[in-house]
Amino acid sequence: MDVLIKIKDREGVVHELQAPTDMAMNIMELCKAYELPVEGTCGGMAMCASCQCYVLNDVSLPEMGDDEEAMLSEAFYVKTNSRLGCQIPITESLEGLELELAPEN
C-alpha cells in the first residue's frame, strides 16, 4: 500500500509523492528516490541534518530519539517543527503528511 506525502522543495514547489509502506523506507530515502535535493550524507544515521524538514500538518509521527534531538540541537535553520527525514519511517499513519525541506546548511 502507498501513502500520499506532500513535500515542498526549496523553490516552493509542492511535490505529491506516492510512498510505499512495504519497503522499509524513510522520508530521506523517499526524497532521494524522487530526486528531490536531499543529500542524506550520513546514510540515515541522524548524523548530518542534510535531510532536515519541517512538519507542516498534524500527522502522527514517531517520537524524536536522542540522536535526532542531539543532531537538531547543532543544525542550522532549526524550527520547533523540525525533524530529520531519515528518522521518519514510512508507515500507513503518514497518509497526508506535509513537509517542507529545510534550507541547505
UniProtKB/TrEMBL annotation:
GO molecular function: 2 iron, 2 sulfur cluster binding; electron transfer activity; metal ion binding
Gene Ontology biological process terms in this record: P450-containing electron transport chain
Keywords, comma-separated and alphabetical: 2Fe-2S, Iron, Iron-sulfur, Metal-binding
InterPro entries: 2Fe-2S_ferredoxin-like_sf, Adrenodoxin-like, Beta-grasp_dom_sf
Gene3D superfamilies named among the record's database cross-references: 3.10.20.30
The keyword Iron is assigned to this record: yes
Full protein name: 2Fe-2S iron-sulfur cluster binding domain-containing protein
Lineage, highest ranks first: Bacteria, Pseudomonadati, Bacteroidota, Flavobacteriia, Flavobacteriales
